[in-house]
Amino acid sequence: MSRILAVLLCLACGGRGQGADVQPDTDNVMIGEEAFDVFELVPETTVCSPTTSANGYKDLCDGTIQAPDLRLWEKASSYQSWDEAKSRCEDLVLAGKDDWRLPDIDELRGLILGCPKTHVSGSCGVHANPKCTEEKKCFSKEDCWPCSMNGGPGGNGSYLDPLFLEPDRMYWSSTMAEMVMAEKRAWGVSFYDGNVRVAPVTDFQQARCVRGP
Hints:
Elements: H1 2-12, E1 51-52, E2 58-59, E3 64-66, E4 72-74, E5 78-80, H2 82-91, H3 105-109, E6 127-128, E7 131-132, H4 135-138, H5 141-144, E8 170-176, E9 185-190, E10 195-200, E11 205-207, E12 210-211
Antiparallel strand pairs: 1-2, 2-3, 3-4, 4-12, 5-11, 6-7, 8-9, 9-10
């Protein structure tokens, strides 16, 4: 009987033109009633179990990856200019934390796997601390040149732990290259070949925020 009354009331409603969209009334559904006109969309969810990779990285199932040195990294990344990347990391609130930053070149190089010369402990001379950021002085092909393309142990042959998303891209660091050209440039790492390199800050590259020691 309640359904018949609802249909009659709907037909009696004025102000709707032919072809107008009719939205289901969900405001007046009482608990215990048969809500035949309510559409509930349940978001698709993925069950995550905390996982530790063979390299000691931990997926904490909250959008973050904990590195062996206890730094906390974003699992995913963004694609933007250098200035936008810095601002996004500074404004980021993730996993209940709000002290995120764009990593410096040493922190970013610390993520490199399988390319020893460009890892932060390797022979490549580009560093944030002690500072050596001038391209002509600190960068050499012998020490900073990339390893083989997509020849690493990570996802898609990248030189980044497999737990990270978007692994085989270039990533920004917060470390500026000392001015040797008119345009502002910043250091980064291309994880598809393990290369330490510079790019104009107006370019769009990937960015992954970090927090911790």
